[in-house]
Write a structure and sequence with these properties.
Elements lengths: L34 H16 L8 H7 L1 H8 L3 H11 L10 H9 L5 H8 L3 H11 L9
Helix pairs in contact: 4-5, 6-7
């Protein structure tokens, strides 16, 4: 007799969905939100506790207002603002390794992309991309 034991089939428990995005929650997830929505909520609450309401929450807002204006509004230094932008997800995490260079770049307003690239030891295209992402206008300062 080569009979296999029958598998017990239990009725599906009430399938739970995320309150924000309505995706199905995993059986082991005892929360009301899925992991991505939960992380986003934590990030928002962290931002609201640590910063003024005028702080940006998206990369588009940052490019529009510019980091220089943002620093002036919130009375922060670049050394404080850039890590906050990285941690909040406004700036992508891959830029975390260049955090010190981004702080130096904010201080180099009015310097050409080529000169800034030589000083930071990166390409001028990288400097241009970072300036665009941070909303830094590349205008020459009057001597």
């Amino acid at each position: 007799m080569n009979s296999r034991p029958l598998r017990l089939v239990t009725p599906k428990q009430g399938e739970r969905k995320c309150e924000i995005c309505s995706c199905f929650l995993a059986n082991h997830n005892l929360e009301k939100l899925c992991s991505p929505c939960s992380n986003q909520e934590k990030r928002k609450s962290w931002l609201s506790k640590s910063l003024n309401p005028s702080f940006v929450t998206s990369a588009e807002e940052l490019a529009k207002i510019g980091i220089v204006e943002l620093i002036a509004i919130n009375k922060l230094s670049a050394e404080v603002a850039i890590p906050l932008l990285l941690k909040s997800g406004v700036l992508p995490g891959r830029l975390r390794r260049y955090q010190s260079l981004l702080v130096q770049l904010v201080a180099m307003q009015g310097v050409s992309n080529s000169a800034a690239a030589r000083k930071l030891n990166v390409t001028r295209w990288t400097v241009a991309a970072w300036r665009e992402r941070l909303g830094i206008k590349n205008t020459k300062l009057e001597p």
